[in-house]
Structure formats: structure tokens, C-alpha cells
Design brief:
heterodimer, A: 292 residues, mainly alpha, two-stranded antiparallel ribbon, 73% helix, disordered C terminus, B: 238 residues, alpha/beta, Rossmann fold, 6-stranded mixed sheet, 39% helix, globular, binds adenosine-5'-triphosphate, binds magnesium ion
Chain lengths: 292, 238
């Protein structure tokens, strides 16, 4: 039982990171119908922003987190405007290939700029561990969980209860009809990329804090897992994406705890295949499957 | 003689090599209902989309209250006072009825005015009040049409463009929709109405234009066109 709770906490902490990534992935997909392969790389940028600002500008955790969100949000806006917007009416596969190109560009560009060495993320918060009847939980895990919760609720609030959120949802449904309401499509898509990328930036700082090590390719696998999480939750559902992220984190932790570390990534892909076969709408998705 | 609100002059619109609209000219005066009728593919929706800025003209001018619309973006055209109820209604599925109406007022800053208009819409369309918290996609076709019209009116337009509002509706709804068009026009709204239901459209319109293969073939008062043998043969079922 103790091990169970221990793994649960570990799984939820890791799952938080995936949840943040999946949320961004999902809203960006919703509005642009684009699998933004560069999403995981924006998360890597967030981690490096944290690394440099904490080490050299002596930022505290909160300042590093917030500035990483701003910087990554801007990066997302630029990526969209430069790489995706010109292809908005092109065949989707062209945009998809471009997204892969942007991903390579960021990974290789960063490897060139900061070398591909793995670096130790600065310990901006001293780790403390609390013993809850044999189950160990660290202050860092708590920070990750709380930050994720706040950001998820914040995003839900914006999307469901603000004018901007309504515009985002309408553009996600129908560009032309949204234009006829007077909504500026370009602005709305930019805002969505900004929000999604800001969440990725936050996740990057959090993972640095949690795993201590960062490198320019760190975004590849989490990017894919976030996509799986979004599919698992049901594309189009915010709670779904968050729950999907947590489930993927739990699954990975469980597979690892059972001694199959080598298979933890494979387990995630098996989940993807199974959902696509059995539950194409995901756990919280709309019942009808979108025809692409 | 009331003044012109919209003037379309020698408008041509292409989809790549396809010339969908050719040298079309027409005008609408303040307070009128003008209808464009024509068979499938005549270019009716293309004209409305171009007025609304969703398509760019290859040639020609669109002047609304003295301002050229041809180079403006769709949001700027809404801001200028032209709202469209698109073909097929295009309500936002997954959003509530009320949210759809709020989106109609997206560009408006007068919160109180928006609240008032929302109440006015609920009064005019009681079913929308009843269903305000419901996903708009769950409304019936006729209810969705009313929502789409109310949504466009929430922008407080000076000119309302309606693209086949009776399409796919049961006869009782068709009558109701035409009654609503008449009544909002009586209250001062200028309307450009596109219809395949030519009889109904011509009977409520001040003037009509008959469109075929992207060109204006005939024009006249609603009554004259209704009585015209050629129009009767082609569009009114003989
Ligand atoms: N996106 C498009 N790409 C290419 N051709 C198009 C496109 N949309 C419309 N067309 C063509 O342009 C012509 C005019 O179409 P339009 O939709 O304006 O007709 P319509 O009069 O509204 O017809 P309907 O009564 O069926 O709605 C048609 O020949 C149509 O096939
Ligand atoms: Mg049409």
C-alpha cells in the first residue's frame, strides 16, 4: 500500500508535466488543426531559460517560471507567424512537415548555441522531503502539482469564461463564421499559441527542477507523450488533456515500478494504439469522430 | 427617394480559373429588402462572401455608405455595419446558445446595450431564451436558423445579409423565418436576401435580381419579377 501511494505521488508529479504539455498541444491543435511537433522543443527552451536566468541572473523560482512562460509564449507566437501562418491554406501535410522542420531547427539550433551537453539544472529550491506515514513527498513535487493545478484552472477560466476564450473556441470551430462575428483570426491564433507555449515553458522549468538535468533534445519524447495524453483525454477537452497527462505519468511510473523501465515509453505508445482502436474520441472527447 | 446603402459595381470574383461572378452590379437603398435569386451555382453565396470580405474581388467595387469594402478584412466590414447570416447557418457547435449570441456582439463595447439587445432577442425568439444554456448544436434546424439570425443582429448591423435562410427547413419554419425577415425590415433593417425559394423571397422583396451563371440576367420590383413569365418558368415552377 505504501509503495502504491509512493508511486501515485511520483506518477502524478511526472504526469503534471505531461498535463501542462498536453493542454498546450491540444489548444494549439484545436485552433490550427496542426500537430505542432515543435511544442516539446518550446518546453526545452523554457528549461534553458530557467537554467540561464537562475544561474546568471539569480532569478528565484517564481520569477524564472513567469518569465519562462512569457518568453516561450513569445516564441510560440513567432513560430506560428513565421512558419505556420503562411501555410494556413496549404495542404495539412505541408504544415506538418514544416512543424517537424521547426522542431529540428530548435533542437539543432540550441545544440549549436549551448552545445548538446546535458546540464544540471540549478537547485533554486532546496529539496525537502516530508514523510507522510512512510510515503515520501518532496516540496518540489508539491510545487509541481500546485503549479499545474493553478495553470490548468487558469486556462480553463480563460477558455470558458472570457471573451478571448469564446473567440478561441469559435475560431477552433469555424474560421469563416468566426470572421463574420468580427473576430480577427490571426490575433486569435496568436493568442492561442502564446497560451499553449507559455504552458510548455512552465513545464520546462518544472521538469528542470524535478529531474535536474536538461539537454537540447529533452523535448522530443515528452512532446510525443503529450500528444498521446491529449488523444487519451480526447482532443478538444481541457480536463481531458489534463487527465490524459496524469494518466500517462502514472502509467509510466507504474511500468517502471514493476521493473520494466525499458518498456515505459513503449507502454505509452501501446496506449495510443489501443485508444485509437477502441476509443477514438478519447476519454472526454466528443462522441463523433472528426473526419480529417 | 431614400439613399443608397450598398452599391456593387461590376463585381467579378474567381476561384482560381473558375469565374464564379462576372460583372455583377446592383444596389440597395436604405430600408429595402432586395433579393438575389438564382439556381444552384449561380454565384449568390460568392457575392455575399465577397461583400463580407471572406473572398476578394478580382474586379469591381463594393461601396457601403460611401466606404469601399473591397480591400477591408472581414472584421472591419462587420465593424462598418454589415453582418451576414451564412448559408447553412454555421452556428458554433459545442458552445451554448447564449455564447453564440455573445459572439455576435463580439466587436461591441457597450456592455449595457449588448445586455439589452440580448433581452430583445430572447423576446423575439422565446425558444432561444429557453435554450440559452444548451449546446447550440442540439437545436433543430429552424431554431438554429433563428439563432444565426439573432447572432447576426447582436452586432447591430445597418445591413443584414441572409444566405438562404429557409434552406432545409420545414414549411412552418419557412413561413416563420420570412415573417421574421419582414418584421425586422419593418423596424428599419435593410436586408439583402438570397433565396432559392424565389416565390417567397420575391413576395417580400422591394426589388429582385435574377442571377444565372454568375451574371445578372434580369431585375425589377419583386412583384414584376413574380409576374414575369420567364421568371415563373425558370424559378417559380412554371
Ligand atoms: N471554394 C470554391 N472553389 C471553387 N469553386 C467554387 C467554390 N465555391 C463555389 N464555387 C463555384 O462557384 C460557383 C458559384 O457558387 P456559389 O456557392 O456562389 O453558388 P450559389 O449561387 O450560392 O449556389 P447554391 O444555391 O447552391 O448555394 C459554382 O459554380 C461553384 O461550383
Ligand atoms: Mg449558396
Amino acid at each position: 500500500m505504501q509503495t502504491f501511494f509512493q508511486q501515485l505521488i511520483n506518477g502524478l508529479s511526472l504526469g503534471s508535466i505531461y498535463a501542462l504539455l498536453a493542454l498546450g498541444y491540444m489548444i494549439v491543435y484545436g485552433i490550427s488543426k496542426l500537430l505542432n511537433f515543435a511544442h516539446g522543443d518550446v518546453y526545452m527552451l523554457g528549461a534553458y531559460w530557467g537554467y540561464y536566468t537562475i544561474n546568471y541572473l539569480h532569478f528565484g523560482f517564481i520569477t524564472a517560471l513567469i518569465t519562462a512562460m512569457i518568453v516561450c509564449g513569445l516564441a510560440g507566437v513567432i513560430i506560428e507567424a513565421v512558419a505556420y501562418r503562411p501555410l494556413r491554406n496549404a495542404p495539412r501535410v505541408a504544415a506538418l512537415i514544416t512543424a517537424i522542420g521547426v522542431s529540428f531547427f530548435l533542437e539543432n539550433g540550441m545544440s549549436y548555441l549551448v552545445t548538446s551537453d546535458t546540464r544540471n539544472f540549478p537547485q533554486v529550491i532546496k529539496q525537502k522531503t516530508f514523510d507522510l506515514g512512510g510515503v515520501m513527498i518532496s516540496n518540489i513535487q508539491l510545487i509541481i502539482l500546485v503549479t499545474t493545478l493553478i495553470l490548468t484552472l487558469g486556462l480553463m477560466y480563460i477558455i470558458n469564461y472570457t471573451k478571448t476564450g469564446r473567440a478561441m473556441r469559435s475560431v477552433s470551430t469555424d474560421y469563416d463564421a468566426a470572421s463574420l462575428m468580427g473576430i480577427n483570426i490571426n490575433h486569435t491564433v496568436s493568442i492561442t499559441f502564446a497560451l499553449g507555449s507559455a504552458l510548455a515553458g512552465a513545464a520546462g522549468v518544472l521538469i528542470g527542477l524535478y529531474y535536474n538535468s536538461i539537454d537540447p533534445l529533452m523535448g522530443m519524447t515528452p512532446g510525443i507523450k503529450a500528444f498521446v495524453a491529449a488523444v487519451l483525454g480526447g482532443i478538444g477537452s481541457i480536463p481531458g488533456a489534463a487527465v490524459g497527462g496524469f494518466l500517462i505519468g502514472l502509467l509510466e511510473t507504474a511500468v517502471q515500478a514493476m521493473g520494466f523501465s525499458a518498456f515505459r515509453d513503449a507502454a505509452v505508445y501501446i496506449v495510443l494504439i489501443v485508444i485509437l482502436l477502441v476509443l477514438p474520441g478519447g476519454l472526454f472527447g466528443k462522441k463523433q469522430v472528426e473526419k480529417v | 427617394m431614400s439613399k443608397e446603402i450598398l452599391e456593387v459595381d461590376q463585381l467579378s470574383v474567381n476561384y482560381g480559373a473558375i469565374k464564379a461572378v462576372r460583372d455583377v452590379s446592383f444596389d440597395i437603398k436604405e430600408g429595402e429588402i432586395v433579393t438575389l435569386i438564382g439556381a444552384n451555382g449561380a454565384g449568390k453565396s460568392t457575392i455575399l462572401k465577397t461583400i463580407s470580405g471572406l473572398l476578394k474581388p478580382a474586379n469591381g467595387e463594393i461601396v457601403f455608405l460611401g466606404q469601399s469594402l473591397a480591400k477591408l478584412t472581414a472584421p472591419k466590414i462587420v465593424a462598418a455595419g454589415v453582418s451576414q447570416v451564412p448559408e447553412g447557418r454555421r452556428i458554433f457547435a459545442g458552445m451554448t446558445v447564449k455564447e453564440n449570441l455573445q459572439l455576435g456582439a463580439y466587436l461591441r463595447k457597450d456592455k449595457n446595450g449588448v445586455e439589452k439587445d440580448m433581452e430583445a432577442m430572447f423576446k423575439r425568439f422565446p425558444i432561444l431564451k429557453e435554450r440559452q444554456k444548451q449546446d447550440a448544436a442540439t437545436l433543430s434546424g429552424g431554431e438554429q436558423q433563428m439563432l444565426a439570425m439573432a447572432r447576426a443582429l447582436m452586432a447591430r448591423p445597418k445591413l443584414l445579409l441572409l444566405d438562404e435562410p429557409s434552406m432545409g427547413l420545414a414549411p412552418i419554419y419557412i413561413q416563420e423565418i420570412f415573417d421574421i425577415i419582414k418584421s425586422i425590415n419593418k423596424e428599419g433593417m435593410t436586408v439583402l436576401l438570397i433565396e432559392q425559394n424565389a416565390r417567397q423571397a420575391l413576395s417580400i422583396a422591394n426589388r429582385g435580381y435574377v442571377l444565372a451563371s454568375g451574371e445578372v440576367k434580369m431585375t425589377g420590383s419583386g412583384q414584376d419579377l413574380l409576374n414575369d413569365p420567364a421568371v415563373q418558368k425558370a424559378y417559380l415552377g412554371g
